[in-house]
Amino acid sequence: MRDWLFKTEPDAYSIDDLARDGRTRWDGIRNYQARNRLRDEVNAGDRVLVYHSSCAVPAVVGIATVVGTAEPDPSQFDPESPYYDPRSSPQAPRWVMVTLAYQAHLPTPVTLKQIKTDPVFAELELVHRGRLSIQVVDPHSAALILERGGLQQ
DNA sequence: GCCAACGTTGGC
DNA sequence: GCCAACGTTGGC
């Protein structure tokens, strides 16, 4: 099992929305490096730290698990979708998605500020590759973040 | 709303 | 294949 950090803008889709839905298609990823990770490295059962970006307090806010493996993202074929990609086709899909299942909120969100100011997290992609939407988290950092967020493991 | 970082596009 | 122009992300 690997640990990942997936970013979402809470105005668009928040951890509360995921808790309500139980599971959701994590669609709309339109970055090749993120796509390649979803396709090649993200596995069923992997743990995902859900992170809120572009908001008042950017933070890790909860955890989810990956259901199944990557599959074509239907929104790429939908002209009405903001994620429509006219260069893609069902015969040659360009973008993939995975499904996430809600696990828990962190009782206390772990903020980007906390993470940036603690040297133990200096190697995290979140600190120096902030724009990547699908990030690797090493097991030790993941455990620390959950512990600081008040989650028993 | 600004702007730095960085990803993508397309002409050559 | 390079790289300038351009677009997007996301913290502040």
From TrEMBL:
Q: What is a single Pfam family found in this protein's UniProt entry?
A: EVE
Per the database record, which ranges form the EVE domain? 4-147
Q: Which domain of life is it from?
A: Bacteria
Q: What is this protein called?
A: EVE domain-containing protein
Where along the sequence do coiled-coil regions lie? none
Q: What's the source species' lineage?
A: Bacteria, Pseudomonadati, Pseudomonadota, Gammaproteobacteria, Oceanospirillales
Which Gene3D superfamilies does UniProt cross-reference here? ph1033 like domains
